[in-house]
From TrEMBL:
The keyword Transport applies. The keyword Nucleotide-binding applies. Residues 9-253, 253-513 form the ABC transporter domain. It comes from Allorhizobium taibaishanense. GO terms for molecular function: ATP binding; ATP hydrolysis activity. Keywords: ATP-binding, Cell membrane, Membrane, Nucleotide-binding, Repeat, Sugar transport, Translocase, Transport. InterPro entries: AAA+_ATPase, ABC_carbohydrate_import_ATPase, ABC_transporter-like_ATP-bd, ABC_transporter-like_CS, P-loop_NTPase. This is Ribose transport system ATP-binding protein. Belongs to the ABC transporter superfamily.
Length: 513
C-alpha cells in the first residue's frame, strides 16, 4: 500500500558512530502516511540504532531527517515524543515498581495537575484505562503495579502507552516504532497486536523490527534490509517474500535442513538425565516428565499455560511450587538454594528476560561469558586469570559469532540478539549436562538461529539433555525429539517427534486451546 503521496518522514544519508566507531552509515529511509514499514537484518546490522536515531535517543552523527516537511533534529527522546514519534523498546522501558498509569505518563504528570500543582491522578488513571481498553487490555487495572503483570502484558502496556502519548500531544498522524514487539509474546498476543496495528494504521504509521520473517511479509507494506550498518535492499509487494528476505539478509538461500533434523538422535532408552515428578503450585498442576541423555524435549503451549513456570521451578528462579520433586542425574535437587545446586549438578538456564536475568549489562562480554565458569578461569591461587578468561571467552565469541567490537566491550552496548548469544555462551563455556532454554532464539536473526540449532545438535551428540520451551512452533517441532503440550497448568498431550514423522503445527495447537 505504498502511497504516491509525500513521505511524512525522511532520513537521508544518515550515519551514527559511537566512540569513533561507525555502526550505521549512508542510511536512506522514508515513511509514508498509513504505512507499515519493516527493517530487517542480522543481529548488529544497525536496525535498533536507526530507530533510536529517529527517536532522538542517539541523534545521527551526520545526515538529515525531515518530519512533516520540516527539518527534524530531536536531541532527546521526549522531543521526538512531542513531535509524534514514540518507540516501543526491545527491552522493556517500564519501571516495574510503579503503577501502570504512572508509567504511561512518566514525566508528563504536570500536564494532569488540577490546581496548585496537585496531580489529578484520577484523570491519569481514566486516560490510561481508556487507552488500554482500546487495545483490548481491559483486564489490566492501571492502578496496579507494573511488575504485577507478566512480560507479555507489560509489552502491550508499552504499546498502549505509545498510542496514548500520540493522542496526548494531539498528533494527527504519529509514527510508532516497534522494536521486536513480538519477541516475547505468544501467538495469541501477536494476533491481538497485529490486529491493533492494522486498525490503528488509519491514524498512524509504523516501523517494525522482528526476527520472525513471516511477520514482515504478513504485516509490512515495504521492507528495508540492512546489512553491516548499511541499507542494502528494499522489498515491496510481490518481492516481499520470506525467501527473498532471508537471502538478502544472510546472503544465501534458506537451508532446507534449517532445524538440522537429519542430525536428530534416536535416544531410545538412554539414561534419564532430568526427572520432574508431580510439580504442582499456583500455576502448574501435577507436571511430570523425564528427559533422557541427548534428548531435546519440547515444551509448548500458549502464553500463561504454565510452561515457563515449570522451567523456572526446575532451576529455582521462582519460589518453588507447593509440591513435586526434581532429580538431575538421579540426584534430588534440594528446594533450598536450588539455583546454586542446579548449577552444581550441571543444569544451565537461558531465561526469557535476558537483560534482567541473563546478563550483567555493565560487565564485559568476556566477563559475562565466563561468569558461570569461574573455577575454570581461576589460577592456582584462586584468582581470576585474565588470560584464561580471555581465551575461554574468545572461543565462545567465535563459536556463536557474537558481534562485538572486542570481548572487552560492555554487554549493554551489544545488540539484543548478540546479548542473547552471550547468555547461551555462558552455559556452553561452563559445560552442562542439562540445559533448560526459555525461548533461546528470541531476538536472534535467522542466520544466527541456524548456528544455534547446530550448537544444540552438537550438545545433544555430547549427551547433553535439553528442555526447550519455545513460542515458535516451527522451532519446537523442528528441534525436538518429543513434544509436550501444556494447557491450564498441566500436560495435555505428548507426541514423539522423530525426524521423519514430525507433528504439524495444527496437531499441537489443537491441544493448546
Ligand atoms: N550505545 C552504544 N555504544 C556502542 N556501540 C553500540 C551502541 N549501541 C549499539 N552499538 C553497536 O551498534 C551495532 C548495531 O547495533 P543495533 O542494536 O543497532 O543492531 P540490531 O540490528 O538492532 O541488532 P539485533 O537484531 O541484535 O537487535 C552493534 O554492533 C552494537 O554493538
Amino acid at each position: 500500500m505504498t502511497s504516491l503521496r509525500e513521505p511524512i518522514f525522511t532520513m537521508t544519508n544518515a550515519s551514527k558512530a559511537f566512540n569513533g566507531i561507525t555502526v550505521v552509515e549512508g542510511i536512506d529511509l522514508q515513511i509514508f502516511p498509513n504505512e507499515i514499514v519493516g527493517i530487517a537484518g542480522e543481529n548488529g546490522a544497525g536496525k535498533s540504532t536507526t530507530l533510536k536515531m529517529i527517536a532522538g535517543i542517539h541523534p545521527p552523527s551526520s545526515g538529515e531527517m525531515r518530519l512533516f516537511g520540516k527539518e527534524f533534529r530531536p536531541s532527546r527522546y521526549t522531543h521526538a515524543v512531542e513531535s509524534g514519534i514514540s518507540m516501543v523498546f526491545q527491552e522493556q522501558a517500564l519501571i516495574p515498581n510503579m503503577a501502570v498509569y504512572e508509567n504511561m505518563f512518566l514525566s508528563l504528570e504536570r500536564n494532569f495537575s488540577r490546581f496548585a500543582g496537585i496531580i489529578n491522578r484520577q484523570q491519569m488513571i481514566e486516560y490510561s484505562r481508556r487507552h488500554l481498553a482500546k487495545l483490548g487490555l481491559d483486564h489490566i487495572d492501571p492502578r496496579k503495579r507494573t511488575s504485577d503483570f507478566p512480560f507479555h502484558d507489560r509489552q502491550m502496556i508499552e504499546i498502549a502507552k505509545a498510542f496514548a502519548l500520540a493522542e496526548f500531544f494531539d498528533i494527527k498522524h504519529p509514527i510508532i516504532l516497534l522494536d521486536e514487539p513480538t519477541a516475547a509474546i505468544g501467538e495469541r498476543e501477536v494476533k491481538v497486536l497485529f490486529e491493533s496495528v492494522r486498525r490503528f494504521r488509519k491514524h498512524a504509521s509504523f516501523v517494525l523490527i522482528t526476527h520472525r520473517l513471516a511477520e514482515y511479509t504478513e504485516l509490512c507494506d515495504r521492507i528495508y534490509v540492512f546489512k553491516d550498518g548499511r541499507n542494502v535492499g528494499e522489498f515491496i509487494g510481490e518481492s516481499n517474500s520470506e525467501q527473498n528476505l532471508h537471502k538478502a539478509m544472510v546472503g544465501r538461500i534458506r537451508d532446507d535442513e534449517y532445524f538440522k533434523e537429519h542430525r536428530q538422535l534416536e535416544v531410545g532408552n538412554a539414561e534419564v538425565a532430568l526427572s520432574v515428578n508431580g510439580l504442582s503450585g499456583a500455576t502448574v498442576r501435577e507436571v511430570s516428565f523425564q528427559v533422557r541423555r541427548g534428548e531435546i524435549l519440547g515444551l509448548g503451549g500458549l502464553v500463561g499455560c504454565g510452561k515457563e513456570e515449570v522451567a523456572r521451578a526446575i532451576v529455582g528462579y521462582d519460589p518453588f511450587p507447593v509440591g513435586g520433586t526434581v532429580e538431575v542425574g538421579g540426584k534430588p535437587l534440594p528446594v533450598r538454594n536450588r539455583v546454586k545446586w542446579a548449577m552444581e549438578l550441571g543444569v544451565g538456564f537461558v531465561p526469557k528476560e535476558r537483560k534482567t536475568e541473563g546478563i550483567v549489562p555493565y560487565m564485559s562480554v568476556e566477563a559475562n561469558v565466563t561468569l558461570a565458569s569461574l573455577p575454570a578461569v581461576s589460577n592456582v591461587r584462586g584468582f581470576i586469570s585474565r588470560r584464561l578468561e580471555r581465551r575461554l571467552a574468545k572461543k565462545h565469541v567465535e563459536l556463536l559469532s557474537i558481534r562485538c567490537s572486542s570481548a572487552a566491550q560492555l554487554c549493554q552496548f551489544l545488540s539484543g540478539g548478540n546479548q542473547q548469544k552471550v547468555v547461551l555462551s555462558k552455559w556452553l563455556a561452563r559445560g552442562v549436562s542439562v540445559l533448560v532454554l526459555d525461548n533461546p532464539t528470541r531476538g536472534v536473526d535467522v542466520g544466527a538461529k541456524e548456528e544455534i540449532y547446530g550448537v544444540l545438535r552438537d550438545l545433544a551428540d555430547q549427551g547433553v539433555s535439553v528442555l526447550l520451551i519455545s513460542d515458535d512452533l516451527l522451532e519446537l517441532i523442528g528441534l525436538s525429539n518429543r513434544i509436550l503440550v501444556m494447557r491450564d497448568g498441566s500436560i495435555q498431550f505428548e507426541r514423539p517427534a522423530p525426524a521423519k514423522d514430525k507433528p504439524t503445527e495444527q496437531e499441537l495447537v489443537k491441544h493448546m486451546v
